[in-house]
Each structure stands twice: as C-alpha cells, then as structure tokens.
Amino acid sequence: MMAYVPQLRPHNQLRGRKLFFMISRRPLLELSTEEVLLYNSIDGRKTVAELEGIYPGAGDRLLRWHEAEIVELIPPITPPANPHLVVIEPHMDDAALSVGGRLLHRRGYGRITIVSVVRWSNYTSYLKLKRNFQDVRVITDLRQQESALATRLLGAEHRYLDWTDAPLRFVPAERWSPATIDRFDVAQKAFAYLFPDPGEVSLIAKQLLQKVSDLAPDELWIPMGLGDHVDHRTTRSACLLMLAEARDRFSGLPVVMYEDLPYAAESGHAAQICAALAQCGTHLVRCAEDITDVLGEKLRVISIYASQFKISFMEPRIRAVAERESGTAGQFAEAYHRVEREPCLPLESRLSPDCAGLALLQTHVCALLVKRMHCHRVTVIALPSGHLGRWKTDQQSLVAAFPNADVRVYAAENLIWQAEEGGSGRLSLTVVRGRWGWVGAIWRELFRIRTPTVVLWWGAYDAGLKKKLIMLLLPFRHLLFAKTLCDFCGVLNEKLGKLRQ
Q1: Is the link from the previous residue into 83 a cis peptide, with omega within 30 of 0?
Q2: What confidence category does residue 500 fall into, taking pLDDT thresholds of 50, 70 and 90?
Q3: β-strand partners of 120
Q4: pLDDT for 165-182, tens place per residue?
Q5: Which of 71, 210, 436, 449 is most buried (most C-beta within 10 Å)?
Q6: Residue 329: DSSP 8-state
Q7: Does 488 share its domain with 366?
Q8: Does one domain contain both 321 and 187?
Q9: Helix (H) or strand (E) holding 37
C-alpha cells in the first residue's frame, strides 16, 4: 500500500474543516486541523509512503478515507507503450460501466486510451432534484476530473472530443430556465430519445478519424449503441462510418463492439443490430469475458462518477446484466462482439430499437413519396405524448420533401416549448389547448380526405385501440404514425436519399 498514490474524489468539497458532497449542506465528516493539512497535501503525485513521512499516521487515515470514499488509491503500475487499446465511449462513464472489468484485466499489460465523444454537459443528479447547479463549465470540469480519476484507476489515459451532451443540443445552455428543468424532470426522453442526425454522425466520424489516427491503436473498442439515447446511437454510427470510409487506413485493425450498460438490460436490441450489420456484410461474433474476479473493483471505479448517479442505484443493474451474461449464479461477465469482415453502416432505422415500427413507417413513406410532388397539403398532428423532434431542422425537411404543399402542424399545448421558433413560410403551427381544442382541430381536418396526415404519439408503433380510433376519426386519407417528428423525418430523408442515388 505504501507505494500507492492517493487521489481525492473531485466531487467532494472541503469548506473550512468540513467535507461536503458537491453543493450539499450536510457534511460528510469534519476533519481535525492535522487532517486538513493531510487532505490539502494530497495532490495525486505523492505516494502513501511520502505522505506518511510528512504526517506520521497518514497511512491509517488514508485507509479510513478510502473506505469512506473520500480518496482513491492508485496502484503503482507503469504499462508498456504497446499494445495500444483505444476505447470510444459516448459519455464520460460509459467505458467504465460497459467494459470496466475487461479493462481491469488489461491494466498494466499495455497502453489504454479512452476517448469520450461528449465533453460539455450540464447534467448531474442535482438536475433531477431541481437544485441550482447548472453551470456548464463547472459541471464539465467536474465530469472531466471524475473521468480522469476513473481512467487512472483503470490504468488508462483519457481524451475527449469537443462535443455537447444531447440535452444541451436540444435546448442550448442559454435557454435553460427553471421551466426547462421542470420539463426535463417529467419528460427526460424528450431531450435525448431522438433519431440521430446524419450531419452530426458525419461530423463526429471525421473528428474520430483524426483522433484515432493520431492515437494509432493496435485494437479498437466501440459501442453498439444499445437503447434509445441519441448520443449512444450517434457515437455507434459515427464509429461505423469512420471505419467504413477509412477501410484502407484501418485494414487489419481488430475491432470490438461492446454492449452499452445499463442499456444492455433491454434484451433483443443487440441481436437486432447484429442482424442489420449482417445484411450489409459485417459479421459479429458474440463473446463474453468472465469478470467475477474484478467485479468489486469495477463497481468501485463506477462509483467515481458520483455526480451522475448513486452506486446503490447502478450496482443492482450492473450485477444483474453481468450475472445474466455469465449464465451462472454468482458469476459475472461482460459481453462484446468481434467485428469480422469490413465494417459497414446500415440505415439508422434498421439499427433503432424501434426497427419493426419504423419498417412499417417506411412502407407508408414510400407510398407517400410516389406522389409527393402532387401534394398540396400535408398535416402533422402531435398528440400530448408525441414529440416535435428537432424542430428547426425537421420542419425544413418537411417543406423540402413536399415542395408544392402547405404543411399544417397541430401540436398539443404541452409540446409547444419544443418549437419556440413557431412556423415559417409554407409551414404553419397551431397550438391545441384542451379537449375542445382537439375537437376543433379534428373537425377542421375531417373533410380533407386526401390530405396525407402524420400522427405523432408515443404508442405509434403499437397496434392498439387508440390507433384504430384515430384511423376512424381521420378516414379516407394516407395516415402515418410515428413516435416523434424526427423519426418521421429520419425515415423520410433515408428514402429521399435512396431516390436521389
């Protein structure tokens, strides 16, 4: 232990002689005058032995602080320069969550670099508690410090792109207010469960190409993009696009796709992604590595990200998935997929967890596009559980797809904050308030029987009574259903792209 290097957890703050968790007003503990001197001397470079020489008894105090999750003890490991493993993660915690055990097995046996796509963020656990802690620079710096400490425990280095978290791309930092926080609290999916933007995928792919080329890895791990979160899906697609467009540069490079945790708890999505990749010629071989011997250490590393979540919340999820992957009670494993044959990038709709629903939407979109030049009116009805997507870009997609049509959008009152710019040009936006507002909207559209109509609501891909009722209320027309406007526009743009090829 004497050769270990203590490092403070960055989310703990010393005020006077009391130690607090972030902006909490309840102290974790109160230090003596001698302990304050020791605490302030921990710089992430001095070993336990060196601190013991300055402050006799420091070793015992550091052990107690380690047990209390005040400090971490970095093992004295100097890895060789090669082989070099590069791991790409969407956010600054995804590698530890998803492949922390496998990385611990490789600690000290080669160089490891973790590259985070997202840098800037305003998210901490305080956001859901509606606490006044939103400063993007302060939070970003804190998350970088947490990640630097976690990667150091994994025996890795940390790098990042200059990308912004999904909630800040959906609502820029300068527009966040108490009302925005309230909306985030009740509708977090609205900020992050979006169809990836092809422009963002292409831009990140170019940035990753430069970063990965500079790092010159001997092996590359990339996320599968499991679940609905747009940052995970965008990062996965950017990685695949990078590899597909730079085949010559990465020829022979071993590539592994890891299953994103905790999203891997949702069964079926990984298999669907494997099938979509197989259809375009990329074969994945699924494997699992036993991490039972390092699970406790992995959980300790994950707990470093305390600004994001409590380990008591995350641990049961990590354990459950890891035990499922091992197939044996009390044993734990991490799943991954070896990429064989040249990587490709399938259509985003085929990689989505809503693939089946989007496939049906594609069929209806194809039929609609046949007559798009002759459409004089297109109606979009966004029900209260719907989503207006990326309003600025999606409305442009609608107008461009139907160049001779007026586009009428009826949006529930609770959704209108997503479209603060309103309508423009050939697109008009009408706010629908209350039950009688919907009666009026349906009445205005009832007799426009040839008008293509898109209905946005969260149950769009389920066959149920509500869908049948909507079909009865809007008869004799081309009726399409989508969860979000960006789902519809995503499929629309995919099909238009094929038509232009």
Answers
A1: yes
A2: low
A3: 164
A4: 999 999 999 989 888 888
A5: 71
A6: T
A7: yes
A8: yes
A9: helix 33-41
Dihedral of the alpha carbons of 346, 348, 349, 351, in degrees to the nearest 10: 70
- Non-local CB neighbours of 472 within 8 Å, separated by 6+ positions: none
Nearby residues of 439 by Cβ (< 8 Å), 6 or more positions away: none
Domain C-terminal end among 14, 41, 74: 74
Q: How far apart are CA 395 and CA 230, in angstroms?
A: 19
CA atoms within 13 Å, Cβ hemisphere of 484: 21
Average pLDDT over residues 317-325: 95
Domain count, the chain: 3
100 shares a domain with 12: no
Is 68 a domain residue? yes
CA distances from 472 to 40, 291, 410, 467, 468 (A): 70, 55, 18, 9, 6
330/429 same-domain check: no
Written as six digits, the tokens of 152 are 């150091």
Distance in angstroms (rounded) separating the CA atoms of residues 29 and 65: 10
pLDDT band, very low/low/confident/very high, at 498 (cuts 50, 70, 90): low
**The two three-digit tokens of residue 204, written as one number:** 């990140």
The answer to whether residue 79 sits within a structural domain is no
Note the pTM of the prediction, 2 decimals.
0.94
Bridge partners (DSSP) of residue 337 are 257, 286
* Closest to 469 measured CA to CA, from 438, 495, 499: 438
What is d(CA 490, CA 484) in angstroms, rounded to the nearest whole number?
10
Q: Could you give the CA distance from residue 377 to residue 453 in angstroms, rounded to a whole number?
A: 9
Whether 300 is covered by a domain: the verdict is yes
464 Cα distance to chain centroid: 30
* Angle in degrees, CA 490, 496, 498, rounded to 5: 105
Q: Is the dihedral of CA 408, 358, 284, 291 positive or negative?
A: positive
Task: Clarify whether residues 221 and 321 are in a common domain.
Answer: yes
pLDDT in tens, 358-415: 999 999 999 999 999 999 999 999 999 999 989 989 999 999 999 999 999 999 999 9
Same domain, 286 and 361: no
pLDDT of 501 higher than 80: no
Instruction: Render 60-101 in DSSP notation, one character per residue.
Output: HHHHHHHHTTSEEEE------S-SEEEEEESSTTHHHHHHHH
Which of 349, 379, 394 is a domain's end point? Answer: 349
- What CA–CA distance (Å, rounded) separates 265 from 141? 30
The CATH number that applies at residue 392 is 3.40.50
Q: How many residues does the chain have?
A: 501
Residue pair 461/334 in contact by the 8 Å Cβ criterion:
no
